[in-house]
Amino acid sequence: MSAKTCFHCLEPVPAGFNESVTIQGHAQPMCCIGCKAVAQTIVDQGMTDYYKYRTESAGKVEQLVPEQLALIKSYDQESIQQEFVAHQGDDKEVLLSVEGISCAACAWLIERQLLAHQGVKRVDVNTSTHRAMVVWNDEQVKLSTLITSLAEIGYKSYPFQADSEAAQKQATAKSFIRRLGVAGLMTMQVMMFAFAMYFGMFSGMEDYFEQYFRWISLTLATPVIFYSALPFLTNAISGLRAKQLNMDVPVSLAIFGAYFASCYATLTEQGEVYFESICMFTFLLLLGKYLEFRARLKASEFTANLQKLLPLTARKVEDNEEHITSAKLLSLGDIVRVKAGETIAADGVVIAGHSSVDESMMTGEHHPVTKRVGDQVHAGTLNHDGVLTIEINKVGQNTLVNQIIRLQHSALSQRPRIAQVTDKVAQWFVACLLVFASITAVAWYSIAPEHAFWITIAVLVATCPCALSLAIPTALTCAVANLTKRGVLIKQSHVLETATKLTKVGFDKTGTLTLGRFVIDHTEILDNAYDEQQVHALASALEAYSEHPIAKAFTESASAAAQQVITDAQVHTGYGVAGMWQGQRVHIGKASWFAGPQPKNAQAVLYVNESAVATFFLQDKVREYAQELQQELKQQGIERVMLTGDPSDKGAQLSQQLQLDACHSALLPQDKLALMQSWHNQGDICAMVGDGVNDSPVFNAAHLSIAMDSGADISKNTADVVLLNSDLRSVSKLITIAKKTRRIVRQNLALSLCYNGAILPLAAMGLVAPWMAVIGMSASSIIVITNSLRLLRL
Questions:
Q1: 3-class SS at 213?
Q2: What angle do CA 671, 675, 679 make, to 5 degrees?
């Protein structure tokens, strides 16, 4: 009796070991606990086809097999997820690179497959960058399950990381070139025989010689069809399984229909063969796809370049000793030293040193930024001079670089309404195309049966709406990449669409139109029981609890003794700060906080037991380019209004200086909100530009909200757009690029629709040969992509 062999590794099963795993309904013997565990995992993951198609036995090692399964399972580890997973409350968010996406139907299929899992909250697929944003609850479903689920429908996916994606893109490019090489080489060989027969070079030969050359052409064409053209068929089948008609369905019908028709003619020795047309068709189609791939790669390379700026190593300081470590191993609280000319490895706060840092990779502004103790620095930025010692406060997906990448992809993945409409139109167009091709085939079969097949092929190919599906995603990708490069971070998909329709823009004053770097100009004492030093100490102690830009004018001269006696401090949004001092209730804030005589034109008032004891008059500097922005918006016919909580006359003075259309002062957050809602009722499309905590409510009401990066975190979290460089010119640049994007999208749609509208009747009348149809379809897609790439050069 022959010894049993392990079904998994094919090694002999030791005597007395009787463990097995049920695979495809049969109990299969295992040689050890390790093989049993691995085999059971493969079965549980629904990957038993591994055993059906494997060409070599699995090694007897203590790891999951196949190797891809082990890698996928590792993505569930928290330590590994720190590199690519972000947190949204109790949920997690990951950006996946997905191979095999060819059109909008692929995106729909991927989204449906993932959303079928309990715990998946959101899936957004970007067909231009071939990436998917997934938000899920890790307690309900694991990341490895989601990745395996995509593999089951033919899409290989992995967490987006610049280095791994670059390698994958390179592998994809090589695959394209190999398929192109096979198609090109075989096409040349087949064409030689075809031309010779077309021009009578074999006239006078026996018939069996001509049949012999047909068989040679069949042999040469077969690798082109079943290797070079295979991706079209697999994509089409995946779409049909999901009951979706994608762009590869008509292409696959054309290629494989023509091939099998020519094979039938060769076998029966009746009719014409067109192996040369099929090969040339496949070659030209692949060439168009390759050029499209290169254009997509250029449009999406910005975010990959951002991550490539991150250094591999860092100088970690422990016990006053410095040693080199991997940047990926840094954790919160680590101390890192950055010398002149080195790149900062992670986000942190400067705890020692003084230098200037180049932050142009995020802000687009090439002027160095001075960094001192207490300043925030970001991963990927370059230290110019001096030595900085920083304490790490953000790692992994929480760093600014990764936040920028994640938010950019989120904005691109959430398709605007016009893109959703176009996706649906493209699917219906494919359905109508198949119906029209069928009608064309029937009509020509009754008129000229010998031409019916090839005219139908031309119709299928020529009118494939690839350009229509590319018209909007490529333009949006290029526009968002351009803006992000300039320091304009778009967080919502509607931004570019809304920015083109603006009729009114509201501006906060402090920290937006001005720098928000206040200095105390002079102080007036209203109660002689207090001297100037004492009121300044009280004001500084209270303002230490505020994030308002005005607070910095007081905290720079804060008195430690006064701060120690402030208790029960509370921030009252829109009014100021209150607390207890020596048994008395003290406040600092708006002049209108309490009833009684109102001090005029003071930016801040100090109250003791609700009685004003001192007023403070501050100076602030107008932000650079504020005047230039107002003039540009005025030229575009956009109304400009200042909304400020400052009760003094400073707002009116600045409004007059900048020639704004209106100014509203002494506004509480609810006042700004009510004003914004009244504009809505009047039919205005409104934007709000601000930076403070008190701007958060009005941000929610505005059609478009824009936050300065120098402002409060809550305003940046609420806003649709964040200006990473806090440069007001970026507002004008956003509107300009949005309008240019709208023009490009309209041009793309017009080009694709005009092409399909013009080529359809010509192909149906038999005036377009199949090879001409291939060139036309590929050219229309390339023209649309090239037109979109112009947005990168603005």
A1: helix
A2: 170
